[in-house]
Write a structure and sequence with these properties.
heterotrimer; A mainly alpha; B alpha/beta; C alpha/beta; B: alpha/beta; Rossmann fold; six-stranded mixed β-sheet; three-stranded antiparallel β-sheet; 8 helices; 32% helix; C: alpha/beta; D-Maltodextrin-Binding Protein, domain 2; two-stranded antiparallel ribbon; globular
């Protein structure tokens, strides 16, 4: 219990004193995970929409595969991206290994299945609900898609948050492809792993609490936006 | 009132529809003319809703034709609207629901507010105009569905049991709206189960039974003395359900 | 409206951010940054946090440390994913060079391994003469022993020490001999929790903060000598290796100044590494 309290106070003092090093890794974590989620959305929203709204051979198999990929261990993704980006790998010439870009790529791979799966689920259900009306109004397909995405935006923002949660809390993949390099690729999770390895459990836990606080902040921010928008209608 | 060339009369020719290996609409032919209020009557399973959906183009017939009076510049679908028994509400405000229908039809953004406000007022939705449509009461939702259809000034309005799940005051307000819409020249084709409502609304009645039209006549003629025995039984409240008999197409009462 | 704006801003920002990283990568290929594949022991001890800022101040070269086990570090370098290698398993390092992956190997510093365990010393290793005997006692008493099990330099050394007795503890893996498959710090954490013995390098042990009732129970055997070597990855094999900057770094480590800097690094008043460049 003593260690838990110490960690708690340490976390508070880190935040209150605006520890430079802490700020650096918090900002890097946020920058990477938000970038990864942004890119993943660009891929997963259209992909999920296609899966939800069209029928083509192999669609069911694809849905099952995506659901399986949601449970993909980050370490496996890390190794996969490592082998791709390694100097000896197919994309080695770009020299991306041990850079933030490599970490974003790994996180995008982790996030896309989650966002795709939720997007598909949400849009399919909403489409089922709207279908008759949209057909009655003779709505062209592209306006159908925009209407569905727009009206599902609150559920889709949950998908984005789920993706963000996976990205920012993940350690296995970014450790491998980022290398946990100080001032370059050290993020909150790899810093926590490092402190734990050094046996500084209090510091590790304190960083964990800061991570929790950051995630809480992001979620509160998103929640307050959706609530403000929703409240306008009540 | 109607600026475009009329898409009416609507001619139905030898229409057949099948689902799950069962023939549900059997060789129907009929005609709908402008300005009338058609009531489709008949017991459950007669095929009233199917016929409505086939006419509106939501279902594809197995054979036969749904023919609008075509003009090369007019898309018939854009001059029809449909209100279903359980209204489909977009997850937006009541106002935005109506706005969406107008925007899909390509109505200029500047013109929309006046049109929307007018129809909101006429359907008595002013108080809830900016509430989320999905949280409105069922009666309000149905009025909103009608407003959303009405604002498009359709030549034909299809309604599938619009008052089936409403209480008497809500039903009354919907009936008033139907009269108003009809008074503007819109042709109404609707189904219902309530004979009282049919008498109050119909100018013409189609009596359906097991996928066929058994009688089509003016409301007066139908309610005073239907030609068809089944229709008479229906009016007398005796045709409540029917039993499928594999060897015979028609059924004994 | 707000959401639409946020979505757009987010996607735009993300593209810019990723693009930004891409462009900085090509900014200065030759000098400013090198990647050093090294071991967790050097990183966890804090040595690099002490050395590298000084080095950067003098040369402007930024050293990116990727700290993994010796085995993994060698593998990274074999894939061409590092410019410089600094590990502690001499025979593996020599193979690395003889196979053409490295240019030349230099001794840079040493410390030693220590056997740590709970202070009540259930196997009585304190009384033994040699490290080989100490391990023999652990085996005889079937006391819990935590092995790295990760092909690291420490792990390789540990297995060599068992072998000197003709033992193969892996046959007991899962019972009293437990392989964590983790870094030194994580293995120490496990040893603390299980009240078991483990072999650690001295630097990691001294800077390790979760010791509780654990202490050094055996040390000083010459077989526990732990030599660190440094190697520049062969630019003939991997043309992208930043040879010039890598050489500057290695030369600095081997220089009088680098060596004295290593010697001056202390944790809790104890020197962690002893420089021994020739």
């Amino acid at each position: 219990m003593n260690d838990l309290w110490q960690a708690f106070f340490k976390a508070i003092s880190l935040v209150v004193t605006l520890d430079d090093k802490l700020l650096e890794i918090v900002f890097l974590s946020l920058r990477l995970s938000l970038s990864a989620v942004g890119i993943a959305l660009l891929i997963a929203l259209p992909f999920g929409a296609v899966l939800a709204l069209t029928k083509f051979p192999g669609r069911r198999i694809l849905i099952v595969i995506i659901n399986v990929f949601m449970g993909l261990p980050p370490v496996v993704v890390g190794l996969f991206v490592y082998l791709l980006l390694s100097r000896s790998g197919p994309f080695g010439v770009f020299g991306l290994l041990f850079t933030p870009s490599a970490m974003i790529i790994a996180q995008v791979i982790l996030v896309v299945p989650i966002v795709t799966a939720i997007t598909r689920q949400v849009l399919e259900e909403l489409h089922h609900e709207y279908d008759e009306l949209l057909r009655s109004l003779d709505v062209p397909w592209y306006r159908k898609v925009t209407a569905l995405v727009w009206d599902a935006r609150f559920s889709l923002s949950t998908a984005a948050l789920a993706g963000f949660g996976r990205a920012i809390s993940e350690v296995g993949a970014v450790m491998i492809v980022g290398g946990n390099i100080d001032h370059l690729t050290r993020v909150m999770t790899t810093a926590i792993a490092l402190e734990a390895r050094k046996g500084d459990l209090v510091m590790a836990l304190a960083l964990g609490l800061v991570l929790l606080a950051v995630a809480l902040g992001i979620n509160l921010f998103a929640y307050s936006i959706t609530e403000t928008v929703k409240r306008r209608h009540q | 009132m109607i600026k475009y060339p009329s898409i009416l009369p609507l001619k139905i020719e030898s229409l057949n529809y099948e689902a799950g290996g069962k023939q549900l609409i059997k060789n129907i032919s009929c005609e709908f003319n402008q300005g009338k209020r058609y009531l489709l009557l008949g017991p459950n399973g007669a095929g009233k809703t199917l016929l409505l959906r086939l006419c509106h183009g939501l279902l594809k017939p197995k054979s036969g034709k749904v023919m609008w009076s075509l003009d090369k510049d007019v898309k018939p679908k854009h001059h029809q609207a449909m209100v279903t028994q359980r209204p489909v509400m977009l997850r937006r405000s009541a106002y935005a629901n109506i706005d969406y229908a107008l925007s899909v039809r390509g109505v200029d953004k500047a013109q929309r507010p006046d049109m929307i406000n007018a129809v909101i007022q006429r359907t008595g939705l002013t108080r809830v105009a900016h509430k989320l449509a999905t949280v409105l009461s069922l009666g309000e939702q149905q009025r909103l569905a009608i407003a959303r259809a009405w604002v498009l000034k359709p030549q034909v309005l299809f309604m599938d049991e619009p008052t089936a799940s409403l209480d008497p005051p809500a039903t009354h307000s919907i009936e008033e709206l139907i009269h108003e819409i009809s008074a503007e020249g819109t042709t109404v084709i609707m189904t219902c189960h309530d004979l009282g409502q049919a008498k109050r609304l119909a100018t013409d009645v189609l009596f359906m039974f097991r996928g066929r039209i058994k009688e089509m006549s003016s409301a007066d003629a139908f309610f005073t003395g239907p030609q068809n025995d089944l229709a008479q039984a229906f009016l007398d409240g005796q045709l409540i359900w029917w039993k499928r008999r594999p060897d015979k197409d028609d059924v004994q009462i | 409206m707000i959401n639409r704006f946020v979505f757009r801003a987010l996607s735009l920002a993300s593209v810019l951010v990723l693009g930004g990283y891409g462009s900085t990568l090509y900014a200065d290929e030759t000098k400013s940054e090198i990647t050093l594949a090294s071991t967790t022991s050097t990183q966890n001890s804090g040595l690099f946090d002490y050395l590298l800022p000084l080095f950067k101040e003098q040369t402007g070269i930024e050293v990116h440390v990727v700290a993994v086990g010796t085995g993994a570090a060698l593998k990274l370098a074999r894939n061409g994913d590092a410019d410089v290698l600094m590990v502690h398993h001499k025979t593996s390092e020599e193979t690395f060079v003889s196979e053409g992956y490295g240019v030349e190997r230099f001794d840079v510093m040493y410390n030693d391994f220590v056997l740590v365990g709970p202070d009540n010393d259930p196997s009585g290793v304190k009384e033994t003469e040699t490290i080989v005997d100490a391990l023999g006692e652990i085996k005889a008493k079937q006391a819990i022993f935590l092995s790295r099990g990760d092909d690291s330099g420490t792990n390789k050394r540990e297995l060599e020490l068992w072998k000197a007795n003709g033992d193969n503890p892996k046959t007991a893996s899962g019972s009293w001999y437990r392989e964590t498959g983790s870094g030194m710090g994580a293995t120490l954490n496990t040893a603390v929790a299980m009240q078991g013995y483990t072999l650690s390098d001295r630097a990691t042990w001294i800077s390790y903060k979760n010791k509780q009732n654990m202490e050094i129970l055996f040390e000083g055997d010459e077989r526990l000598f732990n030599q660190y070597g440094v190697i520049v990855v062969n630019p003939e094999k991997f043309p992208h290796v930043k040879e010039e900057a890598a050489k500057i770094f290695v030369n600095w480590l081997l220089s009088e100044e680098g060596q004295s800097t290593i010697a001056s690094y202390k944790v809790s008043g104890q020197q962690l590494f002893i420089p021994d460049a020739k």
